[in-house]
Design brief:
Layout: E1 2-4, E2 12-14, H1 18-38, H2 43-52, E3 54-55, E4 58-59, H3 65-80, H4 96-113, H5 117-128, E5 136-137, H6 140-150, H7 159-174, H8 179-197, H9 206-218, H10 227-234, H11 239-263, H12 268-276, H13 283-291, H14 296-313
Length: about 325
């Protein structure tokens, strides 16, 4: 599913099918890298490379802003320039999604390194001669709406991903002027969120942190995040105020939990609390102690108290 994002028939946003298109681009990049290491491309292969990966400075496929440079450096340039950055299991990226992009490329590259030219050409022909059903939507409101209500295939989106899409949909729907600037602001905040996810060393799912952020927002320990309740808020006329506030809370929650995890490497009390495990009830307190820039002494007192409470509960 596509949206003509520039209304000129040349640039399209992928609304549904991002995983498939991204995988194909990664696969083709690894394939052309292998083929070029074996021999020069013929004219037809050069045209395919330019149509699918890159023609001069025109890159044919881009991903989200916070991952796009890694896509270019570690994948696209490998297929087109021949000199590229390499990554291994110790390479650190700002986001988990960048790590998955490069890991996927390395997988295809390893597989193609084991194959001969006949096999490589067969795979290329298979990809190029394949067809798929496409559907174009007319505007951003319709595009986001289709993503929210019809994205039921492939990897199931997290609540955080669905929430982001719903926020953007209602911004497009209810902003009186210049929704694109508000969308850009929200996208930047979620970009910061995704970068912090990759830096959180504790094994937490993003939807768990969404739950803690919701409790922090509601100032209540036993509130549970409910998409149905959020939908009711978003139907109200003043929903843009909620979107701005809650997005800020989300960004702050992910950042503060990341700070707590970093302190777990150097502060005994933080490390002890993390090691205890099952400390979900503690995270709203943890976020607030970092929000108000408490001293290390006060943090240590809080972490010790939280550890005692959780041990008693266990």
């Amino acid at each position: 599913m596509f949206e003509n994002s520039k209304n000129n028939g040349e640039i399209y946003s992928v609304i549904d099918g991002q995983q498939r298109v991204t995988t194909i681009v990664i696969c083709l990049s690894a394939l052309f890298s292998k083929l070029k290491s074996m021999r020069e491309l013929n004219n037809d292969e050069e045209v395919i490379l330019e149509d699918t990966i890159k023609r001069k400075d025109n890159i044919k496929f881009s991903t989200v802003d916070y991952d796009n440079q890694n896509l270019i450096d570690y994948i696209i340039n490998c297929a087109t320039e021949g000199n590229y950055k390499t990554a291994n299991e110790n390479t650190k990226f700002d986001t988990n999604s960048s790590n998955r992009l490069v890991k996927g490329f390395n997988y295809f590259k390893d597989q193609f390194d084991k194959k001969d030219e006949t096999y490589i050409k067969k795979i290329l022909d298979c990809i190029i001669n394949s067809t798929c059903t496409t559907h174009q939507v007319e505007n951003s409101v319709r595009a986001v709406q289709m993503f929210i209500f019809q994205n039921d295939r492939g990897k199931k989106p997290t609540n955080l991903e669905i929430l982001k899409s719903k926020f953007m949909y209602h911004i497009y729907l209810k902003s009186e002027n210049n929704p694109d600037e508000k969308i850009k602001e929200i996208s930047n905040k979620f970009g910061s969120i995704y970068k912090n996810i990759s830096k959180i060393s504790v094994k937490l799912k993003e939807d768990d942190i969404l739950q803690y952020a919701y409790r922090y927002h509601k100032n209540a320990l036993y509130e549970y995040f409910s998409m149905e309740e959020v939908d009711k808020i978003l139907e109200k006329n003043d929903c843009l105020n909620f979107i701005n506030k809650f997005t800020f809370v989300l960004e702050e929650t992910f950042e503060k939990i990341k700070d707590f995890c970093e302190d777990g490497e150097k502060m005994l009390e933080a490390h002890s609390l993390i090691t205890l495990g099952g400390i979900g009830i503690a995270y709203p307190f943890i976020v607030k102690v970092y929000k108000y820039n408490c001293s290390d002494k006060d943090k240590a007192l809080l972490f010790r108290a939280l550890e005692h409470i959780i041990l008693r509960k266990k």
